[in-house]
Amino acid sequence: MERPQKNKIYPLEIEGYSSEGDGVARLDGMAVFVKGALQGELCRVKLLKVGKTAAWGKVEQVVRPSTERVKPDCPYYPKCGGCALRHMTYGEELVMKRTRVEDALRRIGGLDLAVDTIHGAEDPLRYRNKAQFPVSGKDGVSVGFYRARSHDVIDIESCLLQQTQADAVGRAVKDWMLSHKVPAYDELTHQGLVRHVYVRTNRKGESLVCILCNGDHLPHEPSLVSAICAAVPNTVGVMLGINKEKTNVILGKEYRLLWGQDHLYDTLCGLTFKLSTPSFFQVNPAQTEVLYRKAAEFAGLTGKETVVDLYCGTGTISLVLAKQAKSVIGAEIVPSAIEDAKENARRNGLSNVEFICADAKEAAAELVRRNLKPDVISVDPPRKGMALAVIEHIVSMEPKRIVYVSCDPATLARDLKRFEELGYHTEKAEAVDMFPRTHHVETVALLSRS
Hints:
alpha/beta; 7-stranded mixed β-sheet; 9 helices; 23 strands
């Protein structure tokens, strides 16, 4: 049997999807990942890379298209790396994401658990409340997004994931840079000034703008403020973020107010949050409310429970749960996030919340030392999931229920398997589409003591 050859074209039947939304086919027992192909399609695929156990290819011709295939509604797709799924209907996207979660739970977690529900967005367009546009001076001035798997910036006039205010600020900053000959930052030479344009917009349509700069000052700062405010009259503040490090990290550690206020307020689940430039806040408020309400439903609160919320960030889930619980203890390693969480609790009149500044392992160990026996433990870890020591500390506190909010089905499945081995059974899981048109999907799972 001939081994599949690079640059050769093969007719392939697309059987399913990868975790990133690529089509998956089989060729002589080898998995072939095909970007832009849909389940059920017959495609002529050119192999671009052939490994020992898998190959990667691109569609040369769709011989038999899926009824779920659509013409992408964005002129920058698929060159821009921001979206992955604009070639399929939104219904097919939800099928793909729900199946992805279910497959991970079965294949990695060994769980025979049906994920019957995925909560899709009412509107998959312009849902993001935060934009971070990289800026490049390679060909004139480009303000937009990186090309997939590169640091080449594609100049973008309008992004269908962002608020229109963000688009307008991006265009205004680009015009200002061209008008005043302000150089963009070059990450290879570490020369130039403007690195990123950052725009945060609340549900009232107010925007807080921050220009990330490789220096302490920008030339013509008053005219920059005027240009931004003219483009977006509902701007409440313009900040300069100072980042002189040789790094891919977007935000720096110093900020200077150029005009207006250094924060804005936004609402979530009936609560009000004060947001500065570095504050963490979920980018899709409508779907965040769906996710958090589902987490609260799984927690089964009656007003008598003690709840522990690990990886609590600025306290959003903690405060949502505190409205229905006797008391909540939140833990987070980032000091500024804990300060924001405490202020958010005061602002919303919630006095039954305590916040601990520690990583999840240290916080869980501290609560074990207190001999705390919470009724419910909520976790919302980063993409890498939970350390085994944290899981063991959680189990030692013997909560009746564990609510696990996850942004990565693979690490969720791994951690649920660990909980199962330590005596906690996964009762149910539901998916929530927080990031339409990308391959990301959130899941909330409920565990109880076996």
